[in-house]
């Protein structure tokens, strides 16, 4: 194979392959670097950027980063690296950078890429869906999810979810202490599952829940790595995946048995079963739907609460808004309608600001038609990656980018379902996350109920976000313990 340049651009200038703790100068030459069976001889570390170009002949997006080229303690797949660009020997393009004049929102309106190849790789390995079945179902299921979970249909979920959240908050008691992340998970998991899958379909009793949570947490922790590595290297993950798929055989069977004829009475899982071609894959798609509904919403709900509780002025504003809508805080089991949520825009801003600050390291697209970016043409078949994490820290688009400033969302036209320019946490174009509006609603509703019912004492400093995941919401590096008690 001919030598080619691999340009690695990351968010911390001077660190080798983007790894924290490195003090290498920039540019840094490393020779050779083994990458998924391919040897690259000239590797340079450059400045911060947000764009990734990966040639078609490289079949993975992150597996070619090896620990041998990194600082001690770095993850095998180096998820700290957020931006990559590759050039052929005869070409020396200037690396496009979204810190300059490149407008990511503009690209998303041009039909030059597709999201399904990146989604497919995850579906193939994480939930064992064959390629033919994936492409056969992708368009239909995406359109169904987008429609059922769109803004015009959120009222169909709000009442049920509100009742479920009240029920499972009741299990926390009138007072207690614990890691806030665990408290959020113990409430949101059963409430959301019962809302989307149907009450009693998935295990939500306390005895069954513990075993399930252990398997789901392991499945979620290594979900990203499983897209790049054989299952034989992730035995515990593989064991949990098989356990969950076995569980979903029963879940699907129960959902099919109770599937009503009236469309308005169906759960989201039953709508999925009605539209799925290849019924033998129903457990696989059910597991994928469960992961999609939990993996990002739970940590974002956690971070939203962390930011609100750790900023006194923001907490005060939040409680004043709650009191103005529902009266003095502490009433038992308030009913929250979609209209009530519209009257609480500040909490929605807090949710979106938490999403901005804890967004994924990268979103991957496959180029289907050549696209010219500045003086470089990206050929069809190459993979294009965008880093929401770094784009959302660009002061050109988000002044004081490291600050938690919910008021910046005043400028967004949320009434018309439009985010701020350059906010790409949910992707862009026609293949944005189909459940994004439901996710924002469920987090906002949970935060409203949780803060209205309980008052908190913080026992730990705000944790830093973990650098160990490139895909999905950033997780906390340490526990965040709180004491809580019901308001009087």
UniProtKB/TrEMBL annotation:
Pfam families: p450 (PF00067). One of its GO terms (molecular function) is iron ion binding. Keywords: Cholesterol metabolism, Heme, Iron, Lipid metabolism, Membrane, Metal-binding, Monooxygenase, Oxidoreductase, Steroid metabolism, Sterol metabolism, Transmembrane, Transmembrane helix. The keyword Chloroplast does not apply. InterPro entries: CYP450_sterol_14alpha_dmase, Cyt_P450, Cyt_P450_CS, Cyt_P450_E_grp-IV, Cyt_P450_sf. Its cofactor is heme. One of its GO terms (biological process) is cholesterol catabolic process. Its EC number is 1.14.14.154. CDD domains: CYP39A1. Pathway: Steroid biosynthesis; zymosterol biosynthesis; zymosterol from lanosterol: step 1/6. It catalyses: 32-hydroxylanosterol + reduced [NADPH--hemoprotein reductase] + O2 = 32-oxolanosterol + oxidized [NADPH--hemoprotein reductase] + 2 H2O + H(+); 32-oxolanosterol + reduced [NADPH--hemoprotein reductase] + O2 = 4,4-dimethyl-5alpha-cholesta-8,14,24-trien-3beta-ol + formate + oxidized [NADPH--hemoprotein reductase] + H2O + 2 H(+); 24,25-dihydrolanosterol + 3 reduced [NADPH--hemoprotein reductase] + 3 O2 = 4,4-dimethyl-8,14-cholestadien-3beta-ol + formate + 3 oxidized [NADPH--hemoprotein reductase] + 4 H2O + 4 H(+); a 14alpha-methyl steroid + reduced [NADPH--hemoprotein reductase] + O2 = a 14alpha-hydroxymethyl steroid + oxidized [NADPH--hemoprotein reductase] + H2O + H(+). Belongs to the cytochrome P450 family. This is Lanosterol 14-alpha demethylase. The lineage of its organism: Eukaryota, Metazoa, Chordata, Craniata, Vertebrata. The gene is CYP39A1.
């Amino acid at each position: 194979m001919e030598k080619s340049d691999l340009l690695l651009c990351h968010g911390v200038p001077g660190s080798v392959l983007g790894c924290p703790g490195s003090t290498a100068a920039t540019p840094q030459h490393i020779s050779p670097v083994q990458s998924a069976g391919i040897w690259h001889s000239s590797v340079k570390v450059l400045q911060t950027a947000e764009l990734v170009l990966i040639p078609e002949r490289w079949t993975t997006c992150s597996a070619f980063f090896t620990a041998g080229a990194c600082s001690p303690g770095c993850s095998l797949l180096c998820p700290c690296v957020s931006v990559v660009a590759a050039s052929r020997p005869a070409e020396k393009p200037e690396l496009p950078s979204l810190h300059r004049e490149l407008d990511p929102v503009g690209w998303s309106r041009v039909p030059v890429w597709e999201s399904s190849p990146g989604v497919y790789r995850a579906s193939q390995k994480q939930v064992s869906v064959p390629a033919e079945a994936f492409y056969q179902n992708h368009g239909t299921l995406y359109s169904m999810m987008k429609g059922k979970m769109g803004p015009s249909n959120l009222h169909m979920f709000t009442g049920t979810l509100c009742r479920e959240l009240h029920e499972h908050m009741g299990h926390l008691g009138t007072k207690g202490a614990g890691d806030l992340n665990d408290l959020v998970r113990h409430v949101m998991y059963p409430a959301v599952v019962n809302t989307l899958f149907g009450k009693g379909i998935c295990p939500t009793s306390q005895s069954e829940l513990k075993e399930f949570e252990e398997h789901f947490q392991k499945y979620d922790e290594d979900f990203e790595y499983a897209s790049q590595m054989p299952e034989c290297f992730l035995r515990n993950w593989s064991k949990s995946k098989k356990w969950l798929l076995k569980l979903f055989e029963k879940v699907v069977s129960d959902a099919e048995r109770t599937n009503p004829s009236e469309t308005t009475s169906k759960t989201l899982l039953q709508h999925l079963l009605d539209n799925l071609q290849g019924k033998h894959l129903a457990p696989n798609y059910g597991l994928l739907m469960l992961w999609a509904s939990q993996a990002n919403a739970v940590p974002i709900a956690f971070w939203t609460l962390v930011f609100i509780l750790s900023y006194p002025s923001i907490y005060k504003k939040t409680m004043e808004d709650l009191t103005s809508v529902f009266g003095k805080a502490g009433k038992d089991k308030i009913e929250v309608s979609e209209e009530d949520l519209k009257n609480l825009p500040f909490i929605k801003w807090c949710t979106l600001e938490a999403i901005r600050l804890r967004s994924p390291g990268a979103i991957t697209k496959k180029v289907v038609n050549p696209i010219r970016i500045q003086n470089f043409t990206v050929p069809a078949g190459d993979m294009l990656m965008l880093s929401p994490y770094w784009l959302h820290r660009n002061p050109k688009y988000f002044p004081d980018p490291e600050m938690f400033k919910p008021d910046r969302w005043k400028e967004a036209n949320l009434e018309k379902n439009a985010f701020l320019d350059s906010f790409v946490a949910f992707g862009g174009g026609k293949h944005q996350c189909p459940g994004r509006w439901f996710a924002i609603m469920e987090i906002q509703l949970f935060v409203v109920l949780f803060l209205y019912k309980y008052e908190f004492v913080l026992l730990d400093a705000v944790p830093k976000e973990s650098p160990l995941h490139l895909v999905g919401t950033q997780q906390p590096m340490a526990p965040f313990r709180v004491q809580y008690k019901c308001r009087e």
